[in-house]
Design goal:
The chain is mainly beta. It has helices at 229-233, 265-276, and strands at residues 2-3, 6-7, 9-12, 20-24, 54-58, 75-86, 90-101, 105-119, 122-133, 138-140, 146-151, 166-169, 185-192, 195-203, 213-214, 221-225, 242-244, 250-259.
């Protein structure tokens, strides 16, 4: 997909065991996420093969692990529905999914939407995920392994070879200190291919348990996770679990901001306030 004639992103709607977005290109043509496992790049780490650029999954869904997706063949499967709406300033992609385990047992259905656009001198991706239980209540379990996530370009890491990144959140915490903390937004900025660049994730104020906890690591994982209270705050197991009754749905919304240099905390705060107020 292009925006203004320049490459922006590719949504891998049919990918299994989970859909993902790769590549994700920021202003100036800067790649913002890691290539592995979609591509093998010399010198790039090949850990955590389930970290696929930008994706949504969770490690405990009715007891099944959709984050890693191995033991019970957990997979998020495209249901055949898709729409793409495009104009000169934005592109909206919608698709439906079935969350399946073992021999095609349905856990829940999902409606996912991406809106790719430009705002405030940056590229943005608005993400909406709506989960609806199957025949049984949907239980999002209490685990750090989730949920809406990016694995950033190796240069944006805070630690490791080639790392230039600075990781901050809306509450003023930095580096390793952001892990497991609640914040309205998180940002990882550095230098990629000689250009100043960064990626931020905003948590919508209407999301349950806002501000969310962040499963964010200095090696390059940024994950918004409103369910992992046991791991993040050392509380009793199950404290963070959330149940969605049959007949109801859970909607989670985020904005990803791909930006250049000069995006300090004050500018991120202003962009967050504008977006959360519905101004763009």
């Amino acid at each position: 997909m292009t925006l203004g004639g320049a490459p922006f992103a590719t949504v891998h709607v049919r990918a299994e065991p989970r859909p993902f977005v790769y590549p994700l290109i920021g202003p100036g043509g800067v790649p913002m996420t890691r290539a592995f496992p979609m591509e093998v790049v010399d010198g790039e780490e090949q850990d955590h093969s389930h970290h696929q650029s930008m994706w949504f999954a969770h490690g405990d869904v009715n007891g099944y692990d959709f984050w890693h997706g191995k033991e019970n063949r957990e997979r998020i499967v495209w249901d055949g529905s898709q729409s793409v709406e495009r104009d000169d300033s934005r592109c909206r992609v919608r698709a439906g999914y079935r969350w399946l385990v073992d021999e095609d047992s349905l856990i829940c259905t999902e409606e996912r939407e991406f809106v790719f656009a430009e705002a405030d001198g940056a590229r943005t991706v608005d993400v909406s995920v709506t989960l609806t239980p199957g025949t049984e209540p949907l239980v999002l379990g209490d685990t750090k392994e989730g949920s809406f996530a990016l694995r950033v370009h190796r240069a944006l890491r805070v630690t490791g070879e080639h790392a230039t990144g600075t990781l901050i959140n809306s509450e003023g915490q930095e580096g390793q200190a952001v892990w497991g903390k609640r914040a309205r937004w998180i940002d990882d900025s550095g230098t990629v291919d000689g250009q100043e660049a960064g990626v931020a994730i905003f948590d919508h104020p209407q999301n349950p348990r806002h501000p969310t906890w962040w499963h964010a690591r200095t090696y390059g994982l940024l994950g918004a996770n409103p369910f992992g209270v046991h791991d993040f705050e050392n509380k009793a197991k199950g404290t963070g679990a959330m149940t969605v009754p049959v007949g109801e749905s859970l909607c989670l919304r985020y904005r990803v901001v791909l930006h250049g240099g000069g995006w300090d905390a004050a500018r991120l705060d202003a962009a967050y306030a504008s977006w959360s107020a519905g101004n763009n």
